[in-house]
Amino acid sequence: MPEKEKLRLDKYLWSIRLFKTRSQAADACDKGKVKLNTTPGIPGDNAKAARTVPIGEEYEVKTESKRWRIKVTGLLDHRLQYSEAVNYYTDITPPEEIERLQYQAASFNTGKRQSKIGRPTKKDRRELGDFLDE
Fold it and tell me: Which of 18, 10, 5 is nearest to 55 (CA)?
């Protein structure tokens, strides 16, 4: 079993795949983006990267894309596939935060250019050149 008695918070957040690297998890802790929650709705104290993670504790974690609220259900000291890593925490993010993210994602453009709109094709440039006698 991959459980240990003592586990650092930055290593735990990295292993459950909330952060891509362990140093990103440690930076988030240092910048106050990881908070220990004692009561729902009231932001808790900043959690340090070296803090020991006990089972049953709740954290509010702000990543680039989402504000998570998680409850620790198991200790994991190394990275596993996402499908297995989700068994080590429970996502208790409030529904209004999830709705906000869905609305925000729907309002953003995908970044892909629509067909035949935007930059002229090579054929279009030739036709423009013929038209302008270049």
Answer: 5
